[in-house]
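Kindly go through the entry underneath: sequence plus fold tokens. Please state briefly how this chain folds according to its tokens.
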Amino acid sequence: MKHIDKLNKLDACGEAVRFAGKFKSGQSAWDNSVRGDWMLWLVGKTSGKPMSVKRKNLVLCACECARLALKYVPKGEDRPLKCIETAEAWARGDASYDDLIKARRAAYDATASASASFASYASYAASYAAYEAAAYAAYAASAAYDAAAYDAAYVTKTLKECADIVRKHYPKVPVVRVEK
């Protein structure tokens, strides 16, 4: 199966490769995936260079996923939301890269000042969505997953919600070009 070969060449995690192997095509695996973190990873691997239009579309998608974790941020702690909003503004061309970096640092500081709780992981999700603006791979959904690490039902629900968000932005499985 070609889609499995491509995933292996991209160094996809073994669990994702095994999941995709249950399907005859990459599109079928994409359509049935309930792991938004895996999907964001693949989009990140195929969405072009940092600062490109394709990358900015990914930032918007990652921000939408990161917003799922905001309900765990303590009332009055606005740095994670501000970070997501700044990343979204940057992706639309309404904020500078310097604005984005400042917002990311503030969200990261919120993570560092929070205890090892859902709130700290939510802050991390926001910070990582902003980082995605210039970084290579997307893991905002993974951060949302971490936010609920102790609640398996929430993890499953959140990853499925992230998968639905990713499919909304990317209905077709990303084209994987692998050097021969």
